[in-house]
Amino acid sequence: MPNDKLVTCVWFDRGQAREAATFYAGLFPDSHVGQALDTATDNPSMPAGEELTVEFTVLGRPFLGLNGGPNFTPNEAVSFMVLTDDQAETDRYWNAIVDNGGAESACGWCKDRWGFSWQITPRALMAAMADPDRAAAKRAMEAMMTMTRIDIATIERARAGA
């Protein structure tokens, strides 16, 4: 992480950053948990020696998990969008997030057990919504609006007008 110019800092409740980083690193390729930093002195949020930050990467992108406490909670204003290549990859990520304490939402969105929103988005959905045939794109969008997890075959049928 020291060579990265932009690092996303993700605020967790106390003691959750390493657990989340380990979960993400185990789920996504090109991901790992890096160095941790402990607090050097007692402070109002935590005692000296407690883990303050954890460096990690997800899909090659750098993050810093901050064990900041309960002061802030995640919301849908910021989400992590993962583009998938097929239904199996879509299902694998979706199931891992939802089945491990997460929750389904609408239109390919879900939340992990720490409250962070993820968009598990097939590239086929993006292609359908960008179709130059705007009627086909509209049908694909309307189909997506009825879904929680995205079903590529249903999107493609809607796009084709079937």
TrEMBL record:
CDD domains for the chain: PhnB_like (cd06588)
Example of a GO biological process term: methylation
GO terms, molecular function: methyltransferase activity
SUPFAM superfamilies reported for this sequence: Glyoxalase/Bleomycin resistance protein/Dihydroxybiphenyl dioxygenase
The PhnB-like domain, residue ranges: 5-121
Keywords, comma-separated and alphabetical: Methyltransferase, Transferase, Ubiquinone
Protein origin, superkingdom: Bacteria
A Pfam cross-reference name: 3-dmu-9_3-mt
Protein name: 3-demethylubiquinone-9 3-methyltransferase
The species this protein was found in: Sphingomonas dokdonensis
